[in-house]
């Protein structure tokens, strides 16, 4: 059977994510990339090794393609006080809980309303976004379907408050894909503190060696790595170098790449 040529860029993408794998395993990964094989029906991936595999997914920027909408909400909130939004500040707020974000902005700019009033203002803007505006990340549906079919234990670990995150999950009809949830309002300290991941580990009672965390931000990666988890970073909003510096063992350019990557890791561990 003739296979199409694997482009240099495709090889680089796979190599960056699988630098510890064998030549045979890399060849399989190249064929997935080059041939656009449907991951859900691949005999290489379809095996029983996923049954004891736990995957912790972040939501914002990982399963939900919401960072553009989040930036606009943040900018609209600041504009209520005639303040200018900046990307640098927005990036620094990717990880803390909503209450922490409001507290940071109140202190930084000396905002007059109480912290609770500011929280309500910001939450209303976010609620509209989660309910109507925010789309899923490309291939998120297929990835969740795949791991459900493979009997992997999938957990949502998000800094978002439960009502906001659940409104998005309900709109996407995704709640059934998850075995457990940990929301930002359940913990005292948000990412990069590892508490939220430690809470998720407690909920499922699994050893860290069988858990993979999928994140998109340096603060999220730091939190997962500090909890002792094997961390995979989606390099859509930050560079692979930045994410690896934060503690990611692997980086992927697109969410669907996690499917062959975890298959390769499972094969290596066998």
Strand coverage percent: 5-15%
CATH superfamily of the largest domain: HAD superfamily/HAD-like
Can you give the helix content as a percent range?
Answer: 40-55%
Distance between the termini: 28 Å
Gross morphology? globular
Structural class, please?
Answer: alpha/beta
Low-confidence stretches: 1-47
Strand order of the largest sheet: 3-2-1-4-5-6
CATH level 3 topology of the largest domain = Rossmann fold
The tally of strands reads: 6
Order of helices and strands: HHEHHHHHEHEHEHEHEH
Largest sheet: 6 strands, parallel
Rg over CA atoms, rounded to whole Å, is 19 Å
CATH architecture of the largest domain: 3-Layer(aba) Sandwich
CATH class of the largest domain: Alpha Beta
User: How many helices in DSSP terms?
Assistant: 12
Number of domain modules: 2
What is the average per-residue confidence, as pLDDT, rounded to a whole number? 84
